[in-house]
Each structure stands twice: as C-alpha cells, then as structure tokens.
Amino acid sequence: MSPFEQLCYLYGIGSEFTKYTGETVNFSYQVREAALKACNVDFYSNDSINALNYELDIKPWHNLVPAVSLVDESEPYLKIKIRDGEDKGLISLEVPEIDFRAELSLENAVICGDYVDADTRYIELKLPISKHLPVGYFSAEVTLREEVFITELWVTPQQAVPFSEKKQLGISVQLYTLTSSSNYGFGDFSDLQQLIRKSACFGIDFILLNPLHLLFEDQPQRASPYSPSHRGLINPLYISVNDCLAQSTFSQLLDEHKSALSILQSEKQSQYIDYDLVSRTKYKLLKSLYRQFKQNASLKSQRSFRRFCQTKSNLLSAFAEDERAKFWQWLAHEQLNHCQKLCLSLGMQTGLINDLAVGCAKDGLEFLTNESVFALNAEIGAPPDPWAEQGQNWGLPVIDPKKMADNNFAYFRQLFKENMQYFGALRIDHVMSLRRLWWCLTVNQQQNGCYVYYPFEHLLAILKIESHSNNTCLVGEDLGVVPPEVTSALASSGIFGNTLFYFEKNHIGEFKHGNDYRDNCMLMLSNHDVPPFAAWWFGEDIDLKVSLSLCSDHEASNLKDQRQIDKQRVLNWLNKSELTLESDVNILFNELVKTLIQTPPKLFSLNFDDLAKQTLPINIPGTDREYQNWRRRILTTIEDVFSSQQSLLNDLTDLRKDND
Fold it and tell me: Which chemical reaction does it catalyze (predicted)?
C-alpha cells in the first residue's frame, strides 16, 4: 500500500464498490484525490502525507486511552494501549459523575491488538470491569503509575429499546397534506391530534410522520422535508394556532384568525399547497402570538419558556438573539409532546414515529452553525443504478468523517437526541450512511463520486445510548444496496429495517413469498417515493411522467408493458382465483394489505394516501421543478377517510391480533 493509498484508507475514502450489475468498479486516483481535497487534507508532498499517516495510524498507539472509550454494558471492558512489557500492576478508573471507582489489574487483561513502531511493540489490552455501569456518556479519569489520563466512557447497551412483542399496525402520513376547517392550508399538530384519536379508535399502534424539520421561513417554496434548514429544530408551520387561541382571551387574535381563514378559504380547496400564501398568512399569526405572549403571558408560561431556552440553549444558539424564533420552537415542542402523550393515553403501543432526514441544506442553519464538521465541495448522493445510470446528487453537504469526532461527537449526539424526544420510535432515512455515504464530486468538470466510510461503531453506540436515554425504538431505512456488515450490525443492535413490497422480488422478478420477509422490520406497501397503489395499478404515474416530459412515449410504452407483467405478478403473489386484472382496484388493495399484515414483519404501516384513495404522487424522485413535489394535499377530511375505510381497518386490526 502506497502512502497515498494508506492516507485514503485512514480517512475512510473507499477504493472500489460493487455496481448494481455485479461489476467491481475501482475509484480513480483523481476521484479519491478530490475526496481528500474536500476534507481539506494536505497531500501535496510526501512529507505531509507521511505526517498525516503518522498522526492517524501510529500516534494513537502512544496514548493510553482514546478520547472516547466504548464500553459494552453487558460485558464491560476498558481498552488501553501500552508498551509491551509494561503490563504489570493496577490501573485506577474513576467516574465521579456516578461515584464509581475501580482498580483494574493489568495481569487480568486480554491482548486484543498490537502495533510495532520503530522496533517498539505496543499492545492493546481489554481490562474487565467487574462492577455494573449505567448506560450513558461519562467523563472518566484513568490513572497509571500516578499519571492521570482523561477519556469519555460510552457505556453502550447491546440493543436499542425493543418494540413490543405484539404485531403493530400503523399509518404513515405526510402531516402537512392533511385538510381541516381550522388549519391554515397546512396540516398541523391539531390535525395530528384528530388523526391520533381516530387511529386509536381502530386499534392502530403508531403513526409514522414525515420529517418535521425546520425549513425556510423566507423561502417557503423550498418545501422538501428531506432538504431542511435544520434537522434538530421543528418547522413552526406545524404549530396549531387554533390550540393557542383556545388558551387566549384576546379578541384581536381571534379577529386575525378569522381573517386568515377567510383569506385561505379558496386556497385550501386547491390540490396543491400555495406555500407562499400559506406561509405568509400563518407566520403573520405566529408573530401576533409572540407579541401577545411578550405583553400578557402568565408567570407560569414565562417560566416554562425560560426553562425551555436554558435547557435547549446549545440547540437554540442557531437563532442567535432571535427570541421570537425560540418562542415558536417552544410552542412546537409543547404541542408535539402533547401529541405523543395523547397517543399513549389512548393505548397506542408506540405512538408517534419520527423520520430523520439523511442530511441538511448547505445554506441552512444546521450547516451554518456546524460548518466546521462538514467537508467542502462534496454532496450526498447515490451511485449509478437502473433508475439513474448517471447516479444521483441530492445536493446536501457531507460530513467529514474525521471532523465529526470533534468534541466527542457532540453534533451527532445532539442530533439523534433531539429527534428522539417526544417519539415512541425514530426512522433513520438512508441508514447506510452510518457506515458509508456516496460523495458526489466534480472531477475534470464532470460529476463523479466515491464511497466514504464513517466511524460506524461510534455512531451505532450513540444511537443505542440515545434510544435508552429517550426510551425510543429505532427503524433504519435500508432500502437499496446495503453493506452486509450494516445489515448484521443493525439486526444484532435491535434496530428494525424497512421493507417495501414493490422492491421485494426474487432473482426471476417475481414478488417474494410473504413468509420470506424478515420479522424485525417495518413493512410498507408504498412510501413517499412510490405512487399510491391505485395510480400504480392503472399506470397513471407513467402517464404523469409523459405529461411532464420525464420520459418519451416509447419509454412509457415499455414501462407500461413491464407494469402489466408486475400486475400479474401481484395477482400471482395473492394467489386468489377470484382476483383478475379487471378486478376493482379497491378490492385488490384491500386483499393485498390484508395479506401483507399476516406476513412475519412485526410492524406494518399503511400509507394514509392509499387510505384516502389518492392518485397523485407526493414526490417524483429525481425531479425538482418539473412536478410540485411535497405540495399535494389530501382534500378528503380525516373523518371521511376513516369512515370510508372502517371495514378494512377493523379487518386489519383483527388479522393483526390473530397473527401475534
């Protein structure tokens, strides 16, 4: 291995990958060089490369303990590095925060690694800790021969908080699409409460939400919840102004509320959200709420707000001195917390499931307040696949795999924590990014890319610790090409996967038998990147692509031919003689989901779009301006959707119980 290749290896920059065709593709020198440039690495001379390799590879062996020491809760060991021959005597371990002290014998240690530097052999030892340590992060002092070393112990459980053993039925919904008489053209936490109450009546156990991340107040047209300004903050448009007004006695606010509803009355009947109008109108009311709070809030409310600002001071520093923005966050947190409590009070097993986007916008608050951990001139994407032969570039900045460890991974710890509060579970979008991420890079003025690897063991430890700290279960969205070490690590860590019916096919293209599905996953018929079932069945998604010039008539003809084959495969999978290609689509849907809920997966999620019989997609992957992504409303009310699907939901609840 050359010094350059060693440097790439130490920085996590891959050398090759297996393409969807099975072909092994080697990353060129120029591409790997571009990845190092993105990390601002000086590799322009042999001396600088050698110095970096020493810093990353050899120097850690000269330190007794690392900055972070991972400790397995069930079988605790402290790992240290010393010179060979010095493995005699005792080491003192103190953790003042939990009043813990232990003497660890070097003679009882197990050698788990070694390294030779300049004819000196260093060994890594595992020292067993006989006393129990609680799960969490703790500053520790390690003393050897009167010299004190500092490390942070991450006492990590073997698994995340487990889901209930019982099978669970849930609903996935894009919250902003919901329609009601009281909202401002954008589904809010009051609508979520109504959805929770109706869902609980039918024995539904969880509601999977779209990411609720902060977007852009001054650029409302940037509507994608997967390209947010900040993933640790909540979009104020989800605040229920109606709930706030219910606690207000000020006629001025009530008059503004009525005026706003009047302005939005006709807009709320439109198929697509007019974000400019909706955002402008709602933020006007939110600003009035803040002014009234400043003038007339009770002492109890003021104390609650101040306590929130103190507790969340690090997170809220993104707003600098903007107290109004902090006030909106307080309202959003209070209402979201109430929604999860409502779920549990009504008997839901899990309640709300949050969705954490894979990245943030490169001009948003999250990037600007954490810029030091991001790489330069590289963006998150995906390698070539059958649907995008040139690969995909999602336009999101990437994290530098070395800088992310700064301050003992404080950035990621806060990110995961904030997205687990108030939720029964967290879905992690593109969970493979914990292990490796496709970096889109510009080489010779053309888009190229490579995989870059991340400190998977540390990120997995954070997830499991935060899971227990927040009592939150975990689901990893692992659709696509997943490295086998990720699949096995997630399974052994008690983190559920995500299975989509349409993608579960065998080597000859038939849909897999339901009994072949894994049980530790969330099974879905469709998600936000797949057309609703009725549209898929009739090929309306293909017609839409033609109308938007996203494919030619010839390509559409081929797609429809393939769709006919897949429709017959669905019928083969259902194996019910009374069902044919001419059967009513609603009957087909009902039979399909009733069969799916009887398969092994512990979690089954219905798309609310399908229950509402939508035909237009919420998002067309690979598009930006061509279609009104993330804007399509559900014009049918929550009450009417549940009323029309009462029989199906009762059947599904019964089938779920029968298959426990």
Answer: Transfers a segment of a (1->4)-alpha-D-glucan to a new position in an acceptor, which may be glucose or a (1->4)-alpha-D-glucan
